[in-house]
Amino acid sequence: MRSREYRILGYEKVKELLSEEAASPVTKAEIKRMEPFVSLHIIRRKLAETDEAVAVIMRKGSLPLGSFDDITGSVSLAEKGGILTMRQLLNVRKHLVTARKASAFLRSDLPELEIIGGLAGMLASGLTLESRVADCIISENEMADGASAELKQIRRSIGLQNDAVRDKLNRILNSAANKTLLQDSIVTMRQGRYVIPVKQEHKSRFPGIVHDRSATGATLFIEPQDIVNANNELRELELAEAREVERILAELSAEVAEAGRDIVNNQKLLVKLDMIFARGRLSVLQKAVPAAIGGEFLRVKNGRHPLIPADKVVPINLSLGKGCNALVVTGPNTGGKTVTLKTVGLFVLMSQSGLHVPADEGTEIPVFTDVYADIGDEQSIEQSLSTFSSHMNNIVEILRRSGERSLALLDELGAGTDPSEGAALAVAILENLRERGVKTLATTHYNELKKYALATDGVENASMEFDAETLSPTYRLRTGMPGRSNAFEISRRLGLQDSIIGRAAGMMDAGELRFESVICSIEADKKAAEEERDEAILLKLKMKRQKEELDRELDDLERKKEKILNKAKADAKELLRDAKEFAEVIKLELQELPSLDQEKERNRRYEYSRRSLREMDELFQESEKLPRNPESPDALELRAGARVRVAGIDQTGIVIAPPDEKNEVQVRLGRMKISVHMTRVMKTRENDETKSESRASAYASLQRGKVLSVTPVIDVRGENLNGAVADVDKYLDDAFIAGLSQITIIHGKGGGVLREGLHSMLRAHGHVKRFRKGMCPEGGDGVTVCEIG
């Protein structure tokens, strides 16, 4: 690549921009000072345009512009009074159609777009002119009959006249007297007039005007005298048609001239929109992102060369600015050094042209007023330029022009001459650029430049990674350390004899060998450190996942604890309600005892009540009993960290303190700490119980409790209907679990509302087989007896 200066925004452009707003004259020095700020504003606006285009493309596809011609010349001709051709008018119409469709596309089904929406809003409508051209012109060479009433009448007359002329000619051709005079019985045209072919020897016998003859001269094309006048009339009609067509074209051209300013403005807007959406399509294709513009850092994060296929490109990471204005890139040949320079240069130019860059979020690009590149070999026999002299010509120009806001990309700096002199020149050039604040990327193989970067503030080494095992480059850029050229390894891989490589190594300076050895050692150490860092990152992620799992387990324990406490409260409420119900039943039975006539029945009822009281007492005592420990653990086994199960709440926890003088053990259950007697804890073994056994045990415990607590009688007298229905419904569930086959509901006689409501509920209840009114000894209409199952 020849050395080039890429002017992002030159002096004349800035002056033009500022002169539109500044009332007072602007000096060149002031403009140069303001140039970066104006550039930044323009670049950010272009990036915003690309952002909006990407948003539109991702939502409903790209703007359907197609192709359109430059019509500024046609509009200019029309404005000067010229007459446009039908082709030019069709191009104008195509332009108007494109503008209308673009405006409609950008005004529907899209979010508010500040820039693109503004451009679409400025597109002028030319529907009237568009329709007028479409009605008048069919193709580039044909105008519609309906373009005007006069043209329609003229073409109708031309058709009639053509028919009349042909009829006369056909009569002449079909005449028997003329058969021998004619070369052929056909009608043709010469010079826009109808003629017939006549034999040369009979021309005197056929009066008329000769318009042409055949190549052999044997045939003359004669316009018969009888149709001369008819042909003249036809010719006059054709001239009238041409004049009318020209008049219509002039009329349409005048309309184009009248709308000329809007049409030209539309074209400028369409070109701008086409450019914006081209940038947007490229961004989507390359999965690119907008770089942060205007900072002091040049930072590329996983940057991919835009011209290398995505499945082959290796991303690079580098940064320049604030303490490091120069980067010296070293490494093997074909290792990717030059591609790195080109990637950085392209990223800068792309960003400052409003393009997104194929990189990751976090990429930053400063505003450069100049980008200089000296890449490749420009030796020329014609110009008497060697490799070194061609490079030096470019570098001299770069040193003369570059400044603080410049970027210099120098490939193989100092190459093509004596290595010692070339290295010294390279160091001096880099030092000059560094002192003047020019951000510089340079590639080299010279150890002197590596040492210079190590010893100089503001200059940093970088290297292209080389895989010593496969003897091939990986194309990954590693900043912070110099690289080796690996010439011996690459030569060995390409087949050079080991003896030659060994002799070459023996010729190298001892100091250079030690330096290469140090670099090799640093590379190995850095690779090991990176592997350890990667392992540490993986370990950190693993620990983070484990912490999240533990947090989830703690949350589960908290939820289980809350569930257990709520269940305990519900059970306590149920026991209390059952006790109240039982007390009411016993009270009623005791009240009925004096009214019984037979002593035997009174004794039976009395014994039944006593037995019920005893069973209820046993039930309450049973609810307070704690499960006995099947294996009484030894105090020595209850050491800190041991897993135990706490009886009574059926939870597994961890011992955090051994038994004290009161034989109480501190156990952690989730985030809760409790102290329990050692007799209430038991050792746990993994998988000692299955979930099905736990559920069966829980159900059996529930059934035993219900058997002991549920009586065969429920009394709902005095309750309203809703409360009585709810109590009886729950009572039926308890009785079913307890295994009762028959129960009695005491509801009283009253007005019968409570009885009827309960009977309606019993008819639909799943546990009730049948029910009936009580018999007289049972309580008559005041009770209902139910069979359940």
What's the Cα radius of gyration? 52 Å
What distance separates the N and C termini?
A: 97 Å
Q: Helical stretch count?
A: 20
Give the % helix. 40-55%
Mean model confidence by pLDDT: 78
Largest sheet, strands/sense/barrel = 7 strands, mixed
- What are the low-pLDDT stretches, counting only 5+ consecutive residues below 50? 1-15, 17-26, 380-384, 622-627, 686-703
Structural class by sheet pairing and helices = alpha+beta
Molecular shape: flat
Q: State the strand order across the main sheet.
A: 1-13-14-15-11-16-17
Which range does the strand content fall in? 15-25%
Number of strands: 26
Write the layout of secondary structure elements.
Layout: E1 4-7, H1 11-19, H2 28-60, H3 72-79, H4 86-107, H5 114-121, H6 127-136, E2 137-139, E3 142-143, H7 149-174, E4 188-190, E5 193-199, E6 208-213, E7 219-224, H8 228-258, H9 260-286, E8 292-293, E9 298-303, E10 316-320, E11 324-330, H10 337-352, E12 364-365, E13 370-374, H11 387-401, E14 406-410, H12 419-435, E15 439-443, H13 447-455, E16 458-467, E17 472-479, H14 487-493, H15 498-507, H16 510-592, H17 599-624, E18 643-646, E19 651-657, E20 664-669, E21 672-677, E22 681-683, H18 691-709, E23 713-715, H19 721-738, E24 742-746, H20 753-764, E25 768-773, E26 783-788
Parallel strand pairs: 8-12, 11-15, 11-16, 13-14, 14-15, 23-24
Antiparallel strand pairs: 1-13, 2-3, 4-5, 5-7, 6-7, 9-10, 16-17, 18-19, 18-22, 19-20, 20-21, 24-26, 25-26
